[in-house]
Design brief:
The chain is an alpha+beta fold. It is built from one helix and eight strands, in the order H-E-E-E-E-E-E-E-E. The protein is globular, with a radius of gyration of 21 Å.
Length: 137
């Protein structure tokens, strides 16, 4: 009987966790550029599983400086980072959980070439279902 109650509690916890993750979504649209590779650098951009965090990876030639810019829908820079000339690989994260709903751009550039990834954030309302659980003692 105790095992059944523990299993029910785990199921309920899982349902609430899924509702919490479903309340906000990020969509990465790679249509802005058809490639993840420029002449002197390559990028990878992906969303962390179950999070509002975008991971940004850059492989570049030593000797070139690369900038990472996150821009809002009006083109304002809301975050920027620089990868130094001495660094060949970079892995950074940008947390979108505190960012308002809308469209954003991640621009990665060496000053000559720019790769762009579109990010769309939409908030959805989670709906709770009323359920009654009865335990027998």
């Amino acid at each position: 009987m105790l095992d059944k109650r523990i299993k029910n509690m785990k199921t309920i916890s899982t349902i609430f966790a899924l509702i919490a993750f479903a309340s906000s979504t990020i969509f990465a649209n790679t249509e802005a550029t058809s490639s993840n590779k420029a002449q002197h650098f390559a990028i990878g951009v992906y969303q962390g599983k179950g999070t509002q965090t975008m991971h940004i990876m850059v492989d570049k030639e030593v000797g070139n400086r690369v900038s990472i810019l996150v821009k809002d829908h009006a083109g304002r820079v809301i975050h920027q980072e620089y990868i130094t000339k001495k660094t060949a690989t970079y892995h950074g994260k940008f947390d979108f959980s505190e960012i308002t709903e809308g469209s954003y751009r991640i621009e990665i550039t060496d000053g000559k070439e720019t790769l762009v990834k579109q990010i769309h954030i939409s908030n959805t309302q989670a709906t709770a279902t009323n359920r009654t659980l009865t335990y027998e003692f």
